[in-house]
Amino acid sequence: MKKWLHNWRLFSLFSMIALLLAGCGKPFLSTLQPAGEAADMQFSLMLLSTAIMLLVIVVVTIIFVYVVIRFRQRKGEENKIPKQVEGNHTLEIVWTVIPIILLIILAVPTVKATFDLADVKPMNKEKRDKDTLVVNVRASLYWWEFEYPDYGVITSQDLVVPTDERVYFNLKASDVKHSFWIPAVGGKIDTNIENKNQFWLEFDQERAEKAGNIFYGKCAELCGPSHALMDFKVKAVPREEFDQWIEKMKNAKKPVVTDPVAKQGEEIFNKSCIGCHAVTPIDKRPEQARTAPNLANFGDRERIAGILEHNEENLKKWLKDPESVKPGNKMTGTYAKLTDEQIDALTKYLMSLKVE
Amino acid sequence: MSTAVRKKSLIWDYLTTVDHKKIAILYLIAGGIFFIMGGIEALIIRIQLAVPNNDFVSAGLFNEMITMHGTTMIFLAATPLLFALMNAIVPIQIGARDVAFPFLNALGFWLFFFGGLFLNCSWFLGGAPDAGWTSYASLSLESPGHGIDFYVLGLQVSGFGTLISGINFIVTIITMRAPGMTYMRMPLFTWATFVASTLILFAFPPLTAGLLLLMMDRLFGGNFFNAALGGNTIIYEHLFWIFGHPEVYLLILPAFGIFSEIISTFSKKRLFGYSSMVFAIVLIGFLGFMVWAHHMFTVGMGPVANAIFAVATMTIAVPTGIKIFNWLFTMWGGSIRVTTPMLYAIGFIPSFVIGGVTGVMQAAAPADYQYHDSYFIVAHFHYVIVGGVVLALLGGTHYWWPKMFGKMLSEKLGKLTFVLFFTGFHLTFFIQHFLGLMGMPRRVFTFLPGQGLETGNLISTIGALLMAAGVIVLLINIVITTFKGEKAEADAWGLGRTLEWAVPSPAPEYNFAQTPLVRGLDAYWLEKMEGKKGLTPAEPLGDIHMPNPSFLPFVISLGLFIASFGFMYHNDYSWGLPVGILGLVITFGSMCLRSIIDDHGFHIHKEDIIEAEKKGVKA
What we know:
The structure holds 2 protein chains of 2 kinds.
Chain A: H1 2-6, H2 11-22, H3 37-70, H4 89-117, H5 121-124, E1 133-140, E2 143-148, E3 153-156, E4 158-162, E5 166-173, E6 178-182, E7 186-191, E8 197-202, H6 205-210, E9 214-219, E10 232-237, H7 239-251, H8 260-272, E11 303-304, E12 308-309, H9 312-320, H10 322-325, H11 340-351
Parallel strand pairs in A: 1-5, 4-10
Antiparallel strand pairs in A: 1-2, 2-3, 5-8, 6-7, 6-9, 9-10, 11-12
Chain B: H1 10-16, H2 20-48, H3 59-93, H4 102-121, H5 137-142, H6 147-175, H7 188-219, H8 233-267, H9 274-287, H10 303-315, H11 317-331, H12 340-363, H13 365-371, H14 375-405, H15 411-437, H16 454-484, H17 523-529, E1 544-546, H18 552-568, H19 576-596, E2 602-604, H20 606-618
Antiparallel strand pairs in B: 1-2
Helix pairs in contact in B: 2-3, 2-4, 2-16, 3-4, 3-6, 3-8, 3-14, 4-6, 4-18, 6-7, 6-18, 7-8, 7-9, 8-11, 8-12, 8-14, 9-11, 10-12, 12-14, 12-15, 14-15, 15-16, 18-19
């Protein structure tokens, strides 16, 4: 597609739009600063269509402005009756054929990209290559679960992926429909309840660094009161770093707590929270039983509840009243009211959950 | 019985009327009220999003606001307001005395009205629907309370009304045209009404089916969409969009029709390429049905379906482009008089082109993976619906106001409305394209600081306030005009081309004393150019047969309104089922009455018509 674009006459217009648009938004979020193969393909299609459409707008605007200025009724012409023109077949054919040509120019790369982006053969091979990374994404009311089936590792809220290779996703929802979207890295796909969707994304090392190695992910389908707050983060790291991380996750045992306050927190956790939350990345329960985010590497996370800055103060706020942070979430009311002391202890414990 | 004898109170008159012009006014008032409600909801949405982390409304209330804003604007404002103009103008434009089924026309209005009323009762009875105007099945099944039940029942009732009105227009246009009014002599607004009504005929049944299944699931223990029990929510999405996409065209085609009339009138030229305009309208209507799945590119239909629907969607740009260029060339060589309606038409062309081209951009499926459910989409469809349909409604209202009410709206205030509304509109929505591309999903009740979304949202909110100011000026204009407006002539703008400008403003109950003979396109213009004062009659003057007014349409609709409440609460209260049945008894009982009562209508006598016509000429 790249080569094809180079030959395009509108190249200059094209690069101008690219310059204009590329300044927009934050590199960790904006689709206008694509940071991977899928996003690149989509971005060039966006540019191509924008260029064609700008061309149309320019032509219409020129005719429009000319007509409105030139043919306004002047003073003293109130009774002038212009010639009643019937139409003009040649002209009408011209503005039927030109749009058709423009659309063909757009349709060909569209169809090609549609099929390229849907190419998930490597993940579905009988015996897939061991380097092909597959992630199962499960969306639930206001949190995300990421499972690495080839490693038996489960994590949530923070997705960790290697850069410079295609990462394949299986996606579904556990309660209502959501939509998985990492704007800077590629377009979204819905997570449905009744079936599994598959697609791939690629994270570019260089551009990931520019974005601070963290991309923002969003839920794009209205799913309830806290739809706006159903964010997740993607940590894109070089392959070696990813391998190290997954190794640590694979071998992570139940954390050993020594600090007395944290110990107290662990007790509270075991009494009130463990029914839903797991604290090791290896969680053998079926997914229906995994009704809350896995907290194995909670201390390493980017954000609390996907949105708040990761610090003790915010964690306390969340534990005290989840409803005030994420309205309609499923954690509110599932445990007895905690005293400030208990919250402090729990915070200490949760912050100590780390694999790195 | 003659008109002079039948004196009734104004309210009773409107509750029982079957006259298409009065029903038009009812549609205009009810649609206008709903439009203002939808507008207030929009303002609340924009105020909440003016700054990051705002807490003007809660997350739950915000979702109710967006749901009701969308539902109200599409079903209860845009469609009925178009019906208002269609009802007021189409029968006169084709030289008919009324629509084909006046009784059904009234029934259509009252069903729409009670459906809308029912939907809005939800605000006071425990919470409005909150699953978005599409009400996708998985979320709408989860939603607690009765909000979604109000949605499914209210829309079914008002949907019947729309369907009935649509069928009525189809029959009217096919069978009631004046002699000589061939299909290829019909004004474009009539053509657009005809095609839009056909869209209603085919699009509303799938919606009703989808809502019915949803109602079964929510109220009667069905499991059509319950995935855990083998249901499928994606089917709901298909059913919804098989309706939802044509719905867009059934809104925009009449808008095209309105602007075709306005542009040709105020350019003093016949429409350029009339036959290709007709062809384009029909083609758009047809293609509108073939492309619904482009709302579902990210659902995971696979590349084959996505590619087919992508290319099919793009083709719609061709007939739309034909129309744009034909309008431009209608103005070309004309003598353009810039009145308020013409201002709307001039503003419409570039606005709609922007909305149209972003539509083509979305048709490129892989690019849509980025646009879908982001603010880019919000910007796009508001460019189409506000930049197309609402501008058409405002332009059309200014244009036909004298015909409907017999008074001219103030041009000065009209132009002020346009400037405020048009500036506000672009300020609100243009920036939203960029917000979407910068990663802002739609339907979010808040956004976090530090993601680069602050400035755009603030600008957008300021624009929304300007639009509101424009609407307020319009209301002031209407109030002033009502009390001391200048009386309108029959040919109010002096440039009328079509039949409606040949009858007095407002038109008499019977429209035409004598059915006119149509001798070509722009029939009235033709006669004027030949130096004649009025139309050539096709029949001798005689008694005119008119239908009797009836209270039954109101009662039939009221019955369904009551039944809706009953069935909605039948799981909660023991009175639910009896009330539901009572409502149905009222509805079907009145239908029975309608069949039994032998109603022959009445005649307006020749002498009375001669008298009335004399007065009309004097005024």
